[in-house]
Amino acid sequence: MGLKESDVNLSTALLLKQYLEADGATVLMTRTSNVLVSLSSRSSYLNSNGADRAISVHHNSVSDASVNRTMDFVFCGFCFALAGDLASAIIQRLGMATGLPLGPAVATPNVICNGGWSCGRQGVGQANFHMVRETAMPAVLVEVSFISNPGEETRLTSTSYLDGNAWAIYAGTVDSNSSEVDSDGDGVLDDGDGSGTVGDHPCVGAASAICDDNCRYTYNPAQADNGGVLSAIGDGIGDACQCGDINDDGSVDPADIDAFRVYLANPIGVPLSPAGESKCMLVDEPHPCNILDVTILRRALAVSPLPPGIAPICEAARGA
Predict the structure, then answer these.
(1) pLDDT digits over 255-281, tens only?
(2) Ordered domains of the chain (ranges, CATH)
(3) Crossing angle between the packed helical segments 291-303 and 254-265, to the nearest 10 degrees
């Protein structure tokens, strides 16, 4: 197919820029068009302009065309520093967005750290790459996937797929710095209980204090949680985040379609939770969670890419 990595990297980075700016961030781009910029110029630009985080977007390539996974890197010894936390949060989100396994990392011998590439954190590696070594702020080099894999190369031609990956990098960035973050501006912090882990103590029963926002990207100050679309049992996922979130990760995205298809292929061996069964019934008909529902969900995501949050999914799906 001849897809250029530089084109895919830039497209993904520009989409990521949009998400970050929509959340109020000032974004410094080392390039906004497909021109060659030296590594030293990139790191110097970020350092001189006081960037507080550096994220380098890449796609990997190896001679074995069967290889395809997602991974990211920090500088040697920074696995459990702020850079490592950022890398871990991003790669967890990318795993969900791409549906790919996390790592193990792949690095050529000249950039492997003395202790090896492993960080002891799933999907995160350490390496002596310029962009994580010469930057003065926490820095992560993301290898979204392997462009050398023919199937992945085809997926990378899809703008909606690139957009989902960009969103994942954005969401991971937010996740890594969530102790004082209120993503939807509803007055309930993402990590409202201050534990350092988002979602470990979601608000239930309309409580909105000393608990984590149960629907982080949709304004829901009341934190209502009455269960799934058809369920009356609270499940820690806000009512604003129910319809279409098949895999219960707080986001409606292609990963939900993948989870739906896995379920449809083997509904007995891969049963959905009661709440999941409620949420995948996107149309009012007697047989929930069937191919019609997943088709409507897929069309809703393809025709009108949803902004951060899930509130529009039922309306978008039923109007698709």
Answers:
(1) 777 777 777 777 666 665 554 555 565
(2) 5-176 (3.40.630.40), 183-320 (no CATH)
(3) 170
